[in-house]
Write a structure and sequence with these properties.
Blueprint lengths: L2 E6 L3 H16 L3 E2 L8 E6 L4 H17 L4 E6 H5 L1 H5 L6 E4 L6 H6 L27 E3 L14 E2 L13 E7 L10 H5 L3 E2 L2 H13 L6 E4 L30 E2 L4 E2 L7 H6 L8 H8 L12 H9 L6 E3 L7 H7 L5 H14 L4 E8 L6 H13 L4 E6 L17 H24 L5 E12 L12 E6 L4 E5 L7 E10 L2 E6 L1
Parallel strand pairs: 1-2, 1-3, 3-4, 4-5, 5-6, 8-10, 13-14, 14-15, 18-20
Antiparallel strand pairs: 7-8, 8-9, 11-12, 16-17, 16-19, 17-18, 19-20
Helix pairs in contact: 13-14
């Protein structure tokens, strides 16, 4: 029996796409390989959000071909959609299948391939001198905006584990694409229009995971706050019968993930309140009580109140900022102003004093002056963030920002990155230390244990990894079964994690 291997790069949405591809192969009668070196077909499910992401994919392609000379290497994902010519020119690549055709990837590999010359593409010349005369890559890429498919299948954080109980955090993608047009971002052109998994299908997938024994589900999307804008109550997607989410646990909110909590209200009641209008993200929250990274203006007062008032939602919010300079935000084509952003963060903190609040920040955007960067630094210093994801601007071909004047020198951007990372580390440490001597709820993860040499010898040095309900890493004394909610007494901070004993 032929074997396949899928290697995912990038965000949780890409990982969810990879799970769908795996399901396609299994349905075709193939079986998964443990390592790429053992596979007949290796799929590179690529990311293209930065130049480094492209380089990572190319390096993986070369390594796989070196370790497994006889395999077919199929490149799909965002890099394949953005630059099929570039990917197809790599001598190691057998097939290029963009996001536009990812939903039928396994079927494409099972049928006759369309030669390059027959494809209607912007650039037909994909061949290079590295290839033999007359040979062609097989490329399946078309206009992503013409496609309405949304791949949805749970992907498991502990994929590949032989012990099924080690799987504790299945990830379900419920939204894809983006309607924003930020000047630095390539994602809309490789992911297409925003589109949503109908609520009935979300509920069915969640309930299937609940029935399988999971206590949390990671909900992911490219621009999850836009979930439901393309759906209406009258579409016939209403859940019927037993459509209530049955998950036991708490909700977690993060950059691209969340944990679905217990919820007893009927999803049918939510649908009844949406008659004759598009869904809003609050409707999804009320139905499954979860969310992910949301754009600042998607954080409505109603959503903040829902989070604060429900004991079923963990207290964690990730709110992308990018910059606190009004001039930079305008050049970025972001849809909010710095004062709007500050107001949202202050409201979240006032409603949830113990919440972990994080942000994405970009440094070195074209034209960013020292004064504009200082506006961002001061804002971060003032606001009650607990962590940051700091990115150095990377020019993406085809975006307006790539051709803007006054590109910031790389060494300047990297220094700004370092400054913000140091500031973020200080804020995170202070936040973690504030929990010493307190109790907090946490869910145990994959059951693996570790040792902490810095701990006093009189205490046990065996720990179980866990995640608190406000998204902090935790090392829990002793060995505990995965997928369990536990009350923990926090005793110290060790590195980037809290440590404590089960209460």
């Amino acid at each position: 029996m032929r074997r396949f291997y899928v290697q995912n790069f990038g965000c949780r949405a890409t990982q969810a796409d990879g799970a769908v591809i795996e399901r396609q192969f299994v349905d075709q009668g193939l079986r998964p390989a443990v390592h790429s070196a053992e596979a007949d077909i290796v799929v590179i499910n690529s990311c293209t959000v930065t130049g480094e992401a492209d380089r990572d994919a190319r390096a993986a392609i070369r390594r796989i071909r070196r370790d497994n000379p006889k395999c077919q290497i199929v490149v799909t994902g965002c890099y394949a959609q953005r630059a099929p010519q570039e990917v197809a020119a790599l001598p190691e690549v057998s097939r290029v299948i963009g996001n536009s055709h990812k939903h039928e990837l396994a079927k494409i590999l099972q049928r006759a391939f369309v030669p390059l010359s027959s494809l209607q593409t912007e650039n037909q010349d994909f061949r290079t001198k590295n290839r033999e005369p007359g040979t062609e890559n097989h490329v399946f890429v078309s206009d992503i905006f013409a496609h309405t498919e949304l791949l949805a299948a749970p992907v498991f954080e502990a994929a590949g584990e032989s012990n099924e109980t080690a799987r504790t955090r299945p990830n379900l993608k419920v939204q894809d694409g983006c309607g924003n047009r930020c000047s630095f971002c390539i994602i809309p052109s490789v992911r297409g229009h925003s589109r949503s998994l109908p609520l009935a299908e979300v509920i069915r997938e969640v309930n299937a995971l609940v029935d399988a024994g999971y206590r949390e589900v990671v909900i992911s999307g490219i621009n999850l706050g836009r979930w439901g804008c393309d759906l209406r109550h009258s579409t016939g997607n209403e859940p019927r019968g037993d459509s209530r989410p049955r998950l036991s646990g708490r909700a977690q909110i993060s950059r691209d993930s969340g944990i679905v909590p217990p919820f007893t209200a009927s999803a049918t009641q939510v649908l009844a309140s949406t008659h004759a209008r598009s869904y809003r993200f609050e409707d999804l929250i009320r139905a499954i009580l979860d969310q992910t990274s949301l754009e600042p203006m998607d954080w409505s007062d109603q959503l903040i109140s829902l989070m604060a008032e429900s004991p079923r939602i963990a207290k964690h919010a990730h709110v992308p900022m990018q910059s606190a300079s009004d001039a930079v935000l305008r050049r970025m084509h972001r849809r909010y102003r710095p004062w709007h952003y500050r107001e949202k963060i202050e409201k979240i903190r006032a409603a949830m004093p113990t919440a972990a609040i994080g942000a994405d920040v970009m440094v070195g955007f074209p034209g960013e002056t020292d004064a504009e960067f200082e506006e961002t630094r001061r804002t971060i210093e003032h606001l009650t963030f607990t962590y940051l994801h700091v990115f150095t601007y990377s020019a993406r071909p085809g975006t307006p920002a790539a051709v803007m004047p006054n590109q910031v020198p790389l060494h300047v951007a990297r220094e700004r990155n370092r400054i913000l990372r140091d500031l973020a580390a200080q804020k995170k440490l202070a936040f973690m230390r504030s929990f010493i001597g307190r109790t907090i709820r946490a869910i145990t993860l994959n059951g693996r244990v570790s040792t902490a040499p810095s701990f006093p010898v009189e205490h046990s040095s065996t720990f179980t990894s866990a995640l608190t309900d406000n998204y902090l890493k935790l090392q829990l004394h002793g060995i505990h079964e995965p997928n369990r909610w536990i009350t923990v007494n926090i005793t110290s901070v060790d590195g980037d994690a809290l440590t404590g004993f089960a209460g």
